[in-house]
Amino acid sequence: MDGVGRRGIDGSARRLRDWLDRFLPPACAVCAGSLARRDSGVCQLCWSRAPACRFPRCRRCGIPSADTGVAATDATCLECATWLPYLRECRAPYVMAGTAAAMVHALKYRGWKELAEEMGRRMAAARFSREVEAEVALIVPVPLSATRLRERGFNQAELLARSVAKYRGLPLAADLLQRRRHTRRQARLLPRQRLRNVRSAFEVAGEPEAELASAHLLLVDDVLTTAATAEACVRALCGAGARAVSVLTFARARRQLAGKGG
Ligand SMILES: [Zn+2]
Ligand SMILES: [Zn+2]
């Protein structure tokens, strides 16, 4: 199907949903139950069931110690021991499971863009170490390729980054980082393939802004699975003058965590 046809169908589906919304009470994107007036897209029960990334966890990559065997929060784990030194810390308020995974899917694949505001608000509340908190100065979303952006119509990472920027009171550089080429979907690849897939897939657009020089950036995405995408972004950003990058995602994938235990 060509892009125009697909957009046409998406447009009709959206119009149908808008039309239905006028007659039906708003429903939760996860459980389809009815929403209270103050809820934005997901009900309070589904939020309360979202699995949190619990303490104690690795001080650097934020993986809960239950998945790594690291005993104390002030220790680091083997998972992040081989990461680039410029990739400073990662945080995610939730584990990619249950209702948290359902929210990621609703936003990314079912077009529930209104979820990004509250998801981003909760991401913005995640805390890094004191040094990182003091340093981060600019928010950068992980970009989609032009092809995927045409297919989906929006970049979920950018919507989340907008909300994080608003709640953290930091500037957003939405177009700073760009995807050089279309990469295969990471979800279907093994960890080693992921790294090969995204290596050199990103570049900093045009002349890097003065604000990038020596800055500590906060890279935002929906899910962190392996750090392959993050490391490829860090290479591009630090190659263009940034001093360090920390990563904030809504959820942390469990598949990798489970793999560590084996
Ligand atoms: Zn619900
Ligand atoms: Zn770690």
Write the layout of secondary structure elements.
Blueprint: H1 3-21, H2 44-49, E1 87-91, E2 94-96, H3 98-108, H4 115-124, H5 130-135, E3 136-141, H6 146-152, H7 156-168, E4 177-179, H8 191-198, E5 202-204, E6 216-224, H9 228-239, E7 244-253, H10 254-261
Parallel strand pairs: 1-7, 2-7, 3-6, 6-7
Antiparallel strand pairs: 4-5
Helix pairs in contact: 4-7
The chain binds zinc ion (2 copies).
Residues 58, 60-61, 63, 76-77, 79-80 line the site of one zinc ion.
InterPro entries: ComF/GntX_DNA_util-trans, DZR_2, PRTase-like, PRTase_dom
Protein name: ComF family protein
Family: Belongs to the ComF/GntX family.
Tell me briefly what this model is.
With 262 residues, this protein is of the alpha/beta class. The protein contains 10 helices and 7 strands. InterPro entries: ComF/GntX_DNA_util-trans, DZR_2, PRTase-like, PRTase_dom.
Q: What does this protein look like?
A:
This is ComF family protein. It comes from Candidatus Kutchimonas denitrificans. Belongs to the ComF/GntX family. There is one protein chain. By secondary structure, the protein is of the alpha/beta class. The chain has two domains: 1-49, no CATH class; 51-261, Rossmann fold (3-Layer(aba) Sandwich). Helices cover 38% and strands 15% of the residues. It has ten helices and seven strands. The chain has helices spanning 3-21, 44-49, 98-108, 115-124, 130-135, 146-152, 156-168, 191-198, 228-239, 254-261, and strands spanning 87-91, 94-96, 136-141, 177-179, 202-204, 216-224, 244-253. Strands 1, 2, 3, 6 and 7 form a five-stranded parallel beta sheet that branches. Helix 9 (228-239) links the parallel strand 6 (216-224) and strand 7 (244-253). The longest helix is centred in the first third of the chain and has 19 residues, at 3-21. The protein starts with a helix and ends with a helix. 42% of the residues are buried. One zinc ion is lined by residues 58, 60-61, 63, 76-77, 79-80. One zinc ion binds next to loops.
